[in-house]
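> run fold Outer membrane protein beta-barrel domain-containing protein
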Amino acid sequence: MFKLLKLVFVLLFFASCSSVYVPTVPNTPMLSAQGEFSGGAHINLKGDANFNGAYAVSNHIGLLLGGALMKDERRTRDIRRKQLEGGIGYFDTFGPDHTRILEVYAGIGTGSTHRTYRVYDKDVLISTELQEVNYSKTFLQVNYSSRKNRNFHLFGNNYPINYGTALRISHVSMGTFLINGSGQPKEDNIFLEPVFFTRMRLSRAVQLQYTTSYNLGLKNRKYMTAGNSIFSVGAVINVGGLKSKN
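> ok
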């Protein structure tokens, strides 16, 4: 009877696993003029390391490139994830002193997730499940941000603060899905990701960024589910572009 309950627990445990897809930290470069480069590195609470960059090839056209890596090994589970995405879009500045920025980007991406779940009974391994997923992604993203600074007073110094928001719509579709080497029904989903970020300027080029967002899925799925929040901290550099008067 105990063994039967143990197996039921194992099945419930595997069924309740989090999504095989975890969104990257959205690329919010705040481009303002031709020749500007933006690059960033971020880490979130799930241990994902995110990297992104952007370059303004003209006064209104920008290119994006980003990715994420994660490797988390524990006694009962191992998770390895990697993603890569790129895009192209339009940006423009407006408002007083051109301090407000609107950006619209579209792009594609690819990724993979390998997860191993293990269940032990008195230090004896009784069950292992290996999930292997490869997927593709398309996305549309709209960013609104402001370079109008508000000073943050800390330890006798003033640090300019600016902020922004973004909405990313992503369609993610499995290419392959294996459990213990056996093919499984493929899943897809459409995700809505509202994003809010705040930057504290340390110098003309370098800023600290805090990002928070949520992940909403429009389809009911077992593995390609939603509900993954992003709370990340990182550093961003912007070289070139319009200079703030503050």
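Helices lie at 2-15.
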